[in-house]
Specification:
single chain; alpha+beta; HU Protein, Chain A; three-stranded antiparallel β-sheet; two-stranded antiparallel ribbon
Length: 105
Amino acid sequence: MSLIKSKLIQNITESNPHLFIRDVERIVNTIFNEITQSLAEGKRVELRGFGAFSVQHRKERTGRNPRTGEAVQVEEKFIPRFKTGKELRLKLNSKNSTSVQVDGD
């Protein structure tokens, strides 16, 4: 089962009945937009205990088409990266935590 943005908003609203759903939606969207904007500016975003988002630059290079084997130019690009924080890693690997299922299991 996946946690999608609408379900996240619903969960937050249910656990905070004093908040309106439109306010929670605005807060969640603002957080995601701030993270996205910071990454677009080349900044690192750190959420203590959860993890850090960063951007990795990949230079232009010559690659190979796997089907034909011919050389192709691969343009430079920026790849988002996420590194888990200590608390998240501990939670995922603790024996007493709820079961974590990986897709395909």
